[in-house]
User: Fold these one by one.
Assistant:
Number 1:
Amino acid sequence: MFERCVALAWCSECRIYTGAMVHVPRSHTLVDALASLPSDDRDRLLRGEAKLVEHLDRHAGRPA
């Protein structure tokens, strides 16, 4: 079966993102881009959309 997830696609060049509802197989493990952050930093980013997008943009393409 599948889970419904919200998918966001970010374009660093255009600086816009789009969202869509997608179906992900339950057997697929999703990557948490914030997993390596200390909990205080993670919480701060999750409270502000602009800060979160800036963080993800700065770290796009870097290995975890």
Note: The two ends are 28 Å apart (CA to CA).
Number 2:
Amino acid sequence: MTAARVPLHRSLLFRLLVASLTIAVVAITATAWLASQYTSQTITQQIGQSLSDDKGVYDELLGFAATHRDWSAVQPLIAARATKLHRRITLMTLQRQLIVDSATGPSLVAARPSATVDPLSVDLALTGRTDRIDSRIVGPFRLTAADQRRLRAELDDSLRCTRSYGSEAEVVTGPHSRPKLVVTQLGKPPYPCALVPLPARSEQRPLAALRKLVATCAGERRPEELGISADLVVTVVDTGRGMTDPVRTGRAAACLDKARRTQLEPYVAPPALLFVTDPGGPTAQRTFPLSRDNLIRTGTATAVVLILAVLVTVLVGRRLVRPLRALTDAARRPGDHPRVPVTGRDEIGYLAAALNELAERREQSERQRQAMVNDVAHELRNPLTNIRTWLEAVHDGLATVDGPVLALLQDQTAQLQHIVDDLRDLAAADAGTLRMHPEPVYVNDAVGQVVDAHRPNAAATGVRLVTEHDGDPEVIADPVRIRQLAGNLLANAIRHSHAGGTVTVRTGVSGGSLTIAVADTGVGIAPADLPKVFDRFWRADDSRSRSTGGSGLGLPIARQIATAHEGDISVESRLGRGTVFTVTLPSRLSVPDVRT
């Protein structure tokens, strides 16, 4: 199997890199997401708590301002809140004059205030209320003890009345800290029930003053037609027509807040700028340390992501190394020639295919080795058996050592020597030590010597030898090996030719190459057997009979000699028509001198 370049997207390194990066990115993303969620939740909680604390400070100072005429007694309140919240709380006038500061620190003259504390202009976004004037301001509307008892009794009666009609109500604090009834669940119309008690005696004078301020603001010419209830609902009744005038009522209602601020201003603290900052100053960075529970949740989430990343990495790694384990197990059992599945087209897949090919080659080599051992044993058995038989016969007196016996023993010994020499040449060729003695040689002379040497054998079998030469080429080669090559081809051709047949030996130069061709008119070779003709000990006669002679090593040796001369040998054959072996050698050959 030839080496193949693995595409980048299929390579093991790329897959490992992608798997590692994917796991790392997912793990980091998951950890970052979980940490950010928990951190955001914690920061939101802390910011919410901080805002709640700031609102609490604002509301307390708003209540203080609503119940005091100045800020002279606010120091203890600010000190207590600053200590509890670990914050710096500062109050300044609208002209940025210091009123009170819970701690020393950088100047806040140019800083942006957290809020403006003014009970007559409440920040609705901070308090969530609907009335711009703080309801805790009592001012001139303070009730006497007797009025408070009467007012409470009237509210209790109204509450019982409301419930008797199937409604639900509750007592809430209205303007000037005055209680009033609010229906929360409506049953039958509670018209007979008074939800707002009538003004108490102590409220009549401040209500009259407020009515006067509203009338002046609204430009009322008949102030006596303007009425303000105890819960500060303004109405203007046209006495001439006996009904409410909506235009005048709207104009008067628009002036109510202004009139109330004018009336209540002497009873509250003046507006002040509130600064709630960190002890380091307004520019100091606010830190929100994670709570113990949030730290545990974040650590647990990180540990879970880490464990999942490890598990996924192990699973992906096991999947990637599974083919390697199969290859390792197969490599540990070389004698079994195992096969491993080819699972992909990456390096592991190519390695598995190479291992399978190697196992197949090992099996083929093992079969060839066994076949060669059997063939060598078979080739050596016949001459050895003949020699032993005749020697035992002479020893037992059954035969005498005469000329024919000696000739037979010499022939069998020569055959053994020939087989041994062939095996030695093949072994030397396999080891790369086949002896070569290159020198200038005329090919026609070398081939002519071989043909002359085989004429007696050819004549004995009735085969005619013919030589055809195209020029007289000279090459640098080993003349002994060239004659051995031509002799093996010629002996093979004579052996497979019938009586009356012809064996032709041709030499020539074509296309810069020297060719030696040996053609016969013998039985030919089947197409299926052509790839086997150069296998060692192979014969077309499967019965291994000696009818055709030869050891089956001549053609393999001829190919080795051609290869050693940087050439090649090919065969063409047709059944019943004959066979042609063609040797191709470089015309100017330079063969290294290899001696053992």
Note: Residues 139-267 form one domain.
